[in-house]
From TrEMBL:
InterPro entries associated with the record: Ald_DH/histidinol_DH, Ald_DH_C, Ald_DH_CS_GLU, Ald_DH_N, Aldehyde_DH_dom, ALDH7A1-like
Organism this protein belongs to: Nocardioides agri
Subunit and interaction comment: Homotetramer.
The EC number(s) this enzyme carries: 1.2.1.3
Protein name stated in the entry: aldehyde dehydrogenase (NAD(+))
Organism taxonomic ancestry: Bacteria, Bacillati, Actinomycetota, Actinomycetes, Propionibacteriales
Length: 509
């Protein structure tokens, strides 16, 4: 039986935890109320900044940039290394704040903080590997090479569902690349943001780095818009809805800035006739119901071969009936609350649309624990068997709602996977080498993340994270995503003593 903490209990826990992380609660006080999805009730009141403050913050960041870009990259990495140590010291406290403000179960909240530590480790190594290339010149006595330099101020706009990790993906890499960061977090997770910033501020102070190397600006949409439009923001990294991205991208481009967009996902798993169904069920249930369906990589569609679709659906429905739903900080809980009523209403509307299209609900749907927490929105993860992929299936619903459709030919499964506007994550469960290779080939999934025999969520920081089409095309975290945070210069060095021109041009004076 789940228990839901009272308003006073949760508020006291949140404020004391934030204080232990170094948050100056008096300096952060204000009149904007915040609440927790755990009980749907107020936690505290916070002070917000306005759009004019963004100009001040960017100005301070530009001053910090002029100093920080001169610091050798390995020395910049040393700062990030210390930040990782502080994150590890405060891992449990930061995870508690993530659970309170975002509703994540404890293991997922701790995993998010571990992801921050991991990206710091990656960035420390990266600080000694910001490699350029040397290319052969066609002219004797010349050398061609490329060098990479710090870009400038990085603006980060993050969403509630990963209130800490996504900021760290940008910040750890930006710092070793020589860039300061101005962060506009979600309005729903201010204490998490302040606590994360406090750990980095301590590392900055200990290293004697510029004070305003990292800043957090709490505020409403106008703060985000000010970051988007500010000419002093060289790179704007924004995580959110496709609708948001449609507004952000053109506005940044209009001022010739760079944007890095991580937007919607409508992620599918193809389950073939040869699939290990034990493996598939475990992978699907976590990807579809984990984080209460509120990850951009959440699995929202299963494309099952007709020979296994009935058995797979029955096994998924049975697993869903066993999912413990409730207080995310209570041991044993696997599914916490939706973030708010709007999220629940969107899920309910999508189920109505799906049944109107001939779909059949085979598991879940509706609210849970309404008697214990009438102001919170605990949803029962739902599975809807669909006759085909209709418009509602192609629409991302940010909730634990999974559609099951069928296919006969593998090429058709790939077509169904690709026939949505989004292109973030995808997977195939198969024991057939040809199917696996085809799915990850140029003829296969059109997503930025393409997996075999695992689900669609749970990406590691070593790989570049992001997607195609309406997902925005951005890449964050590992691989060569660091290049977005730097500017490239191509250098030609003449040591010949002569001045031959390229392409054999003769311009003798």
């Amino acid at each position: 039986m789940t228990s839901i903490p009272s308003q006073s209990e949760l508020s006291a826990l949140a404020l004391e935890t934030a204080r232990r992380c170094g948050v100056d609660l008096a300096a952060s006080a204000g009149d904007v109320p915040t609440s927790s999805p755990v009980n749907g009730q107020g936690v505290t009141t916070i002070g917000w900044r306005d759009a004019a403050y963004v100009d001040e913050a960017v100005g301070r960041a530009q001053e910090a940039f002029r100093e920080w870009r001169r610091v050798p990259a390995p020395a910049r990495g040393a700062l990030v290394k210390r930040w990782a140590e502080l994150l590890a010291e405060h891992k449990d406290d930061l995870a508690t704040l993530v659970s309170i403000e975002a509703g994540k179960i404890t293991s997922e909240a701790r995993g998010e903080i571990q992801e921050m530590i991991d990206i710091c480790d990656f960035a420390v190594g990266l600080s000694r590997q910001l490699y350029g290339r040397t290319m052969p010149s066609e002219r004797p006595g010349h050398r061609l090479m490329e060098t990479w330099h710090p870009l400038g101020v990085v603006g980060v706009i993050s969403a509630f569902n990963f209130p800490a990790a996504v900021w760290s993906w940008n910040t750890a890499v930006a710092l070793v690349c020589g860039d300061p960061v101005v962060w506009k977090p979600s309005e729903l997770t201010p204490l998490t943001a302040l606590a994360c910033q406090a750990t980095l501020a301590q590392a900055i102070a200990e290293h004697g780095a510029p004070e305003h190397l990292s800043q957090v600006v709490l505020g409403g949409p106008e703060v985000g818009e000010a970051l988007v439009d500010h000419p002093g923001v060289a790179l704007l990294s924004a995580t959110g809805s496709t609708r948001m991205g449609r507004a952000v991208g053109p506005r940044v481009a209009d001022r010739f800035g760079r944007s890095l967009l991580e937007l919607g996902g409508n992620n599918a798993a193809v389950v073939t006739g040869s699939a290990d169904l034990d493996l598939a069920v475990r992978g699907i249930v976590f990807a579809a119901a984990g984080t209460a369906g509120q990850r951009c990589t959440t699995m929202r569609r299963v494309i099952a071969h007709t020979s296994v679709a009935d058995e797979l659906t029955d096994r998924l429905a049975a697993a869903y009936e066993r999912l413990p739903i409730g207080n995310p900080m209570q041991e044993g809980t696997l599914v916490g609350p939706l973030v708010n009523k709007r999220a629940y209403d969107a899920m309910a509307a999508a189920i109505t649309d799906a049944t109107g299209d001939g779909g059949k609900v085979v598991a879940g749907g509706g609210r849970a624990h309404e008697d214990l927490a009438p102001d919170a929105y605990y949803a029962r993860p739902a599975i809807v068997r669909m006759p085909e992929q209709t418009a509602v299936v192609a629409r991302e619903t940010f909730a634990p709602l999974l559609y099951v459709v069928t296919y006969d030919e593998f090429e058709h499964a790939i077509e169904i996977n690709n026939a949505v506007p989004q292109g973030l994550s995808s997977s195939v469960f198969t024991q057939d080498l040809v199917e696996a290779e085809l799915f990850v080939s140029a003829e296969g999934s059109d997503c930025g993340i393409v997996n075999v025999n695992i689900g669609t969520s749970g990406a590691e920081i070593g790989g570049a994270f992001g997607g195609e089409k309406e997902t925005g095309g951005g890449r964050e975290s590992g691989s060569d995503a660091w290049r977005a945070y730097m500017r490239r210069a191509t250098n030609t060095i003449n040591f010949s003593g002569n001045l031959p021109l390229a392409q054999g041009v003769d311009f003798t004076i």
